[in-house]
Each structure stands twice: as structure tokens, then as C-alpha cells.
């Protein structure tokens, strides 16, 4: 990996991110969305966040394509995070708790 | 309506957690061989965690530039529907709205939703501002720590835990059908993982939200004057 490739990557990723984030607001402009879409907007975050959780918790992120499902120490950490959230623990406690559990299990020799 | 100051205040816990995430990004990216200054610049100009992790991981694993940028685009594709939803709540012409739309991150978008399809614009800006500061500072801290094994520290559990916290806040604050949509979205994403490239399963799962388009049942057959079944 040469440095010039890294800088090209940064320019490219920044460019597509600006385009994607700006696309909706630029296309919709000041028009109101149809009334019926309000129901979709209210559910969109739930669907997106749930998908982000499971794809990051159950997928082995070491491979280049990351296509295989995998239950590991990070999955256990996220499970504990869920328990902490149920107990209404503060957010920082939740994320640090997840890391401590995942790191602790790896220190014990599981899923290293 | 919640204003900028409310956003700054409510964004703090998310910023703190996001800082841990940024710390792990900085450490991982340097570990993968990226120059420290490039890693910090990436966080400054991109400011999208999942896209940064995905693209750097692919480049470091020997993937092409196109594949890495494509993966970043796919990871960020969820901002397309989010931007469409947000658009009417922004101000100004198309260009200004496109610029304002850059302020969207997952937590600020989800937290600034009022629940009626509109978003508190200033609140979103405030929430994002503290997130941005902690994202950059966390990355700087991450690149300065050398010889860190992010996996050994369990830092790969931070990202999903952060999003789980956002999801739980979302489920607690709203309508009952959100839990069903979340479970269905999770199931769709998991089934799609072996088939689609990273980011694809999340975008596909977003389609589950189209359930919100369904028409409320209209009971035309109810005779006038008689109460229909309780809804």
C-alpha cells in the first residue's frame, strides 16, 4: 500500500460520502415528502440500526470481503452491551463494557 | 422544538462513545500501515466511521482503490434514504441543503427525528458538532498510541455496541411496530451477508421500513352510527 494510494482513497471516499449525504437534500429541495412516507421515515432508523448491529456483531471483520457469519468475542461483548442497555446503564459504560468483555474473552484465549 | 444547545448537550454521551470508536479507527488504520497524518486527515474530511473502517480494511488487505471506494459508498448508502427524509427539514436552496445535509451522522439523525416525519435542524447540527470534535480528537489519540492490538482490547465490539444503544433508544421512544421492523431488518441483513458485499445488507434491510407505507385499514363496510372494532 503506497502513500499515494492512501491519499487517493481519502479523496475518493470523501467525494462519495459528500455526494451521498448531499443527494437527498439536493434532489428533494424544499418540497414536502408525500404524507405516506412519514410512516417509512419513522421506521427507517430501526431497520438500519438493527442491520448495522447484526452485520458488525456477527461478521468476521478480518477478511477482505467479510462475507462469513461468525460468533466471536465481539458478539459476546455486544450481548453484554444489550444487557447493560436493558439495565439502563450510561452509553459510555455500555460501549466500554462491550470492549472489556470482548477483550477479556480474548485474553482468556477464546476467538483471539 | 429542541435547539442547537440541546443538541450539543444530548450529543455528549454519544460523542464520548464515538470517541472510543475513533480511537479504535486510528489505532487500527496505523496498525494496517497507513501514515498517521493520512489517518487523521481521513477522519477530518470523511467523518463516516463505517465507510472509513471498510475502505481502509479493503485497501490494506490488497484490494483495489475502486473496490475500497465502492465499499465506502455502499456502507454510506444508508445516508441516501436518511437524506431524503431529512431534506424538507433543512433550509435554503438545493445547494445549501446539500451542504447542510453533510451534518448527518447516524446518532444525530436518529435523535433529531421528532416522530412526525420532521427533524429538529439545529438540534441535529449541535449533536453532530460534538460528535465531529470527538471523532477527530479520538482519531488523533488513536494514531498516537502505538503497538495497540485493537482486537485484543475488544475494540471491535465498540461499533456494534454503539449502534445497539442507538437502536434501543429508538425502540424505547416510539411506536410498537418498530421492534418488528428492527427484527425483520436484522434478519434480512444476516441472510444477505453471504451474498452481498459489505454495506449491501444494511441498504437492503432499509427496505423493511417500506412497511410504513401500508394503508391504514379502512372499514367502509362498517354501517354508519355503529362503532367499528377498536383500532
Would you spell out the secondary-structure blueprint of this structure?
The complex is a heterodimer of chains A (112) and B (231).
Chain A: H1 3-28, H2 37-57, H3 73-86, H4 91-107
Chain B: H1 4-31, H2 36-45, H3 49-60, H4 65-75, H5 79-86, H6 94-100, H7 106-112, H8 121-144, H9 158-173, H10 177-192, H11 200-206
Number of H/I helices of chain A: 4
Roughly how much helix do the residues of chain B carry, as a percent range?
55-70%
Residue windows where pLDDT falls under 50 for at least 5 positions of chain B: 217-231
Proportion in helices of chain A: 55-70%
Number of strands of chain B: 0
Average predicted local confidence, pLDDT of chain B: 88
Distance between the termini of chain B: 30 Å
Count of DSSP H/I helices of chain B: 11
Order of helices and strands of chain B: HHHHHHHHHHH
Unreliable segments of chain A (pLDDT under 50, ≥5 consecutive)? none
Major sheet attributes of chain B: none
Strand percentage of chain B lies at under 5%
- Biggest sheet features of chain A: none
Description:
The complex is a heterodimer of chains A (112) and B (231). Chain A is an all-alpha fold and 112 residues long. In chain A, 70% of the residues lie in helices and 0% in strands. Chain A is flat. The two termini of chain A are 26 Å apart. In chain B, 63% of the residues lie in helices and 0% in strands. Chain B has 11 helices and no strands. In chain B, helix 1 packs antiparallel against helix 2. Chain B is globular. The C terminus of chain B is likely disordered. The interface between A and B is large, with 86 and 117 residues.
Amino acid at each position: 500500500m503506497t502513500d499515494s494510494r492512501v491519499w487517493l482513497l481519502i479523496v475518493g471516499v470523501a467525494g462519495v460520502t459528500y455526494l451521498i449525504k448531499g443527494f437527498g437534500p439536493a434532489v428533494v429541495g424544499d418540497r414536502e415528502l408525500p404524507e405516506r412516507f412519514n410512516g417509512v421515515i419513522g421506521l427507517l432508523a430501526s431497520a438500519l440500526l438493527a442491520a448495522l448491529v447484526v452485520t458488525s456483531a456477527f461478521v468476521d471483520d478480518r477478511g477482505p470481503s467479510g462475507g462469513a457469519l461468525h460468533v466471536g468475542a465481539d458478539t459476546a461483548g455486544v450481548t453484554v452491551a444489550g444487557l447493560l442497555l436493558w439495565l439502563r446503564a450510561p452509553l459510555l459504560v455500555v460501549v466500554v463494557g462491550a470492549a472489556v468483555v470482548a477483550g477479556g474473552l480474548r485474553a482468556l484465549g477464546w476467538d483471539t | 422544538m429542541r435547539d442547537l444547545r440541546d443538541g450539543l448537550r444530548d450529543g455528549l454521551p454519544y460523542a464520548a462513545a464515538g470517541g472510543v470508536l475513533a480511537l479504535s479507527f486510528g489505532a487500527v488504520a496505523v496498525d494496517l500501515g497507513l501514515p498517521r497524518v493520512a489517518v487523521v486527515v481521513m477522519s477530518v474530511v470523511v467523518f463516516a466511521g463505517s465507510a472509513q473502517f471498510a475502505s481502509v480494511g479493503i485497501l490494506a488487505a490488497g484490494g483495489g482503490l475502486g473496490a475500497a471506494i465502492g465499499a465506502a459508498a455502499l456502507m454510506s448508502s444508508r445516508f441516501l434514504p436518511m437524506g431524503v427524509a431529512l431534506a424538507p427539514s433543512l433550509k435554503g436552496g438545493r445547494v445549501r441543503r446539500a451542504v447542510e445535509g453533510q451534518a448527518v451522522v447516524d446518532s444525530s439523525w436518529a435523535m433529531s427525528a421528532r416522530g412526525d416525519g420532521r427533524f429538529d435542524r439545529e438540534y441535529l447540527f449541535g449533536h453532530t458538532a460534538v460528535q465531529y470534535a470527538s471523532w477527530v480528537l479520538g482519531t488523533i489519540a488513536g494514531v498516537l498510541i502505538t503497538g495497540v492490538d485493537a482486537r485484543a482490547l475488544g475494540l471491535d465490539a465498540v461499533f456494534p455496541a454503539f449502534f445497539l444503544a442507538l437502536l434501543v433508544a429508538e425502540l424505547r421512544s416510539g411506536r410498537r411496530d418498530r421492534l418488528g421492523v428492527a427484527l425483520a431488518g436484522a434478519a434480512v441483513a444476516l441472510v444477505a451477508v453471504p451474498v452481498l458485499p459489505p454495506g449491501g445488507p444494511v441498504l437492503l434491510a432499509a427496505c423493511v421500513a417500506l412497511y410504513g407505507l401500508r394503508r391504514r385499514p379502512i372499514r367502509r363496510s362498517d354501517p354508519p352510527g355503529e362503532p367499528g372494532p377498536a383500532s
